[in-house]
Amino acid sequence: MTIDNPNYAYPARSSNRKGPNLDKIGWVFMRASGVVLIVLIFGHLFYNLIWTEGGIQAITFGFVAGKWADPFWMWWDVIMLWLAFIHGSNGMRTVINDYVHKEGIRKVLIGAVVVAAAVLIILGTLITFTFDPCPAGADPELLPSFCATL
């Protein structure tokens, strides 16, 4: 009985190959983004659950509106969103490369992961930076209580 070479899906990288080693870049990115994500996530949780009074019950529409009124917290959440989606997508790419052995299917799946991540990153960023809890011209009955009525 013989055991198949576990690296059969990956052709050996020749020493004379030109260009960047994308797998190495992905490996380094996963380590660096993981450390940064730990700081961002625990900072997010600390601020939302411990620093502000009321704990999880205090997280309401008004809380988010007040938090995103500060550009610091908008950028904190957007960077956390970007890194989380890119980190997770790179992890999915690795899983697909490890378990999908047909080249065509692998390309389709990786393309689907890239498209899904790109759409979610764009939508999340758009929502964060265009968020307005008190839009002009809205029905006053639908607005939160902290919005000034004219």
TrEMBL record:
The chain crosses the membrane at residues 25-47, 73-96, 108-131. GO terms for molecular function: metal ion binding. Signal peptide: none annotated. InterPro entries: SQR/QFR_C/D, SuccDH_FuR_B_TM-su. Keywords: Heme, Iron, Membrane, Metal-binding, Transmembrane, Transmembrane helix. It comes from the Bacteria. Its main location: membrane. It is found in: Membrane. It holds the Pfam family Sdh_cyt. GO terms for cellular component: membrane. The keyword Membrane applies. Gene3D superfamilies: Fumarate reductase/succinate dehydrogenase, transmembrane subunit (1.20.1300.10). This is Succinate dehydrogenase hydrophobic membrane anchor protein. The lineage of its organism: Bacteria, Bacillati, Actinomycetota, Actinomycetes, Micrococcales.
